[in-house]
Design brief:
Largest sheet: 13 strands, mixed
Radius of gyration: 20 Å
Strand content: 25-35%
Bound molecules: the ligand O=C(O)CCC(=O)N[C@@H](CCC(=O)O)C(=O)O, zinc ion
Number of helices: 7
Mean pLDDT: 96
Shape: globular
Length: 331
């Protein structure tokens, strides 16, 4: 049943059972795309882990990665040793192989959300699922990895976005991400209402959005470069301490500016296939908006991340970042 969970979610077929046993514990299906794994015994290093994928329906590699982890659990190659909430974010968008159906789910994770519609309802359901899960494990260190893939190529194909929130990121997280072959980290500069931000802001979780290569349809993903990330997820599922490496292996950036789309008449002034983290020199015009005017790089170069001129009005059309120092170990 476990390994069929993803297929059944894609087919919108209700599974025959809402729970059962697996090596090292039990599973419970709380709602479509919301699966909780409960260990018979938590290992001492275990985190309470939220692992989500498919928040954008066309980002399939992370869904396959979670599927592989479940298959290994079910086959007895891994023994569950930590509480885990596994989430397929937007099953309807997954079925349509679209980023979203009506609106971008990953901008809706706020407690004062009052919009109606499929994605707002889904955001409310997922926020409740995360609240309930973390409240069951008050003694555990909390963690949320929200797994994505990017629309464009990237100078660093695998990178982490660290949400902005008060909770400090523990140094071991940088070590784990470096060992998982994450190549760059982007620190957010302000609240962003993404899923990983929700867990960090409201539950003090160690939380990241992880970009794991480029968005491709099911069956077209090469999971080989994600093998080190699979090892990290498996260690978390087993409640073991993951391997670490020096964070200096990764390049660090901080968002300096968020480029917003204000009007219908908006364009980015560089090629559509410009890879993430491409740097633009001072004086370069990056955007033209009928309402906000033009945006030109000022005195320091800026690197562009997630450029997308086709976003909804009022939404982020790109992040502009500058290099940041690698974090030092507080000891
Ligand atoms: O490649 C793109 O333009 C988008 C990839 C993606 O979905 N990224 C996330 C990042 C979330 C964050 O800022 O933490 C998103 O845009 O929701
Ligand atoms: Zn995404």
């Amino acid at each position: 049943m476990l390994s069929e969970w993803i297929e059944l979610s894609l087919e919108s077929t209700a599974p025959t059972s809402r729970g059962g046993k697996l090596p090292g514990g039990t599973y419970t299906l709380h709602a479509a795309g919301v699966l909780e794994l409960t260990p018979t015994e938590c290992r001492s290093e275990a985190h309470a882990c939220v692992l989500s994928a498919g928040i954008h329906g066309n980002e399939t590699a992370p869904i396959e990665l979670l599927g592989e982890c479940l298959a290994r659990l079910e086959a007895g190659l891994l023994a569950l040793g930590a509480p885990v909430l596994m989430i397929l974010g937007n099953p309807e968008a997954m079925r349509r192989a679209e980023r979203y159906v009506n609106t971008n789910l990953n901008r809706l994770f706020r407690r004062d959300l009052d919009e109606s519609g499929m994605e707002p309802d889904r955001a409310r359901l997922l926020m409740r699922a995360v609240d309930d899960f973390f409240s069951r494990y008050p003694e555990h260190e909390r963690l949320h990895y929200d797994l994505h893939t990017a629309i464009r190529d990237s100078r660093y194909p695998r990178f982490a976005v660290e949400p902005f929130a008060e909770t400090a990121t523990r140094h071991e997280q940088w070590r784990w991400l470096a060992a998982a072959d994450i190549q760059a980290v982007l620190h957010q500069h302000q609240h962003s209402w993404t899923f990983s931000h929700y867990s960090k802001h409201h539950h003090q979780a160690q939380a990241f959005t992880l970009e794991l290569g480029r968005a491709l349809p099911f069956g077209h993903n090469d999971l080989a470069p994600l093998a080190p990330m699979a090892r990290l997820l498996e260690a978390l599922l087993e409640g073991r301490k993951p391997s670490g490496d020096t964070p200096e292996r990764m390049r660090f950036f901080r968002v300096a500016h968020e480029l917003m789309r204000h009007s219908e008449d908006f364009r980015l002034c560089f090629a559509d296939d410009t890879p993430n983290f491409t740097e633009f020199a001072p004086g370069t015009q990056l955007a033209e908006d009928a309402e906000a005017g033009s945006f030109v790089v000022e005195s320091e170069p800026l690197s562009v991340v997630f450029p997308n001129a086709a976003v909804e009005l009022g939404a982020r059309a790109a992040l502009l970042a500058r290099p940041a120092p690698a974090p030092t170990d507080p000891g």
